[in-house]
Write a structure and sequence with these properties.
By secondary structure, the chain is mainly alpha-helical. The protein has one domain: DNA polymerase, domain 1 (Orthogonal Bundle). About 65% of the residues lie in helices and about 0% in strands. It contains 5 helices and no strands. Helix 2 (about 20-35) crosses helix 5 (about 75-85). The radius of gyration is 12 Å and the shape is globular. The chain starts with a helix and ends with a helix.
Length: about 90
């Protein structure tokens, strides 16, 4: 049975705010608060996949210290703009 969108958004929001690295809690938490409701299912899939990555790598990608893998690059750029990093 497919996960209801409402439940998915709640799960993803909780996951975004409880990462383990405070910086990524703040970056992904604020991003999820502001944008989750407006993301398409495909964008939510991409964000779910991105949140599988470890926080240290995510922070380097969002802050521009390292290049993100190609499959994550568009979303990383969106998150970085939202966080004011770019």
């Amino acid at each position: 049975m497919a996960e209801l969108r409402e439940h998915r958004l709640k799960r993803m929001k909780m996951r975004a705010w409880h990462r383990g690295m405070k910086e990524m809690d703040f970056i992904l938490g604020r991003f999820s608060d502001d944008t989750l409701h407006s993301l398409s299912d495909a964008d939510l899939d991409a964000l779910d996949a991105l949140m599988e990555e470890n926080d240290q790598d995510l922070y380097k990608w969002v802050s521009g210290q390292e290049q993100a893998p190609a499959q994550h690059q568009p979303l990383i750029e969106t998150i970085a703009r939202h966080a004011g990093a770019l």
